[in-house]
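Record type: monomer structure entry
Structure origin: computed from sequence
Chain ID: A
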Amino acid sequence: MDYPTLEREIEISTSRSSGPGGQHVNKTETKVELRWNLGSSEAASESEKRRLRHHLRKRLTEDDVLIITEQSSRSQHRNRELAHREFKRILKNGLKPIPKKRKAGAFKANDRKRKKEKERRSEKKAWRKKLY
């Protein structure tokens, strides 16, 4: 991942934040929205994009855009810092390898346990039969 290129690809916009803050919130743009287009990114290789799409499938828009919104602080500077921190955390988690799929079905230990219990039940019922 080419981080200097990645930093240039990020688009940041600000708007008025919602929530508490009184008059301050009504006149300052403290809400920060960070957008990064994964599909058109030159900073990520194709294998990295594949991993990111897999891990971030619930966070990406239909256009392959990752949007991070931060408005927890009264300061735009602090919200910008928090958004960047969240972006780095998401990228770090998203670049983990895609886990291998395992074959579906019951585990062998469960199968053995079920068969053993079935055999025990069969023996118990066999004792109820007449012996002659």
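Annotation 1: The beta strands are 11-15, 31-37, 65-70.
Annotation 2: Helices lie at 3-9, 23-27, 46-55, 76-94, 108-126.
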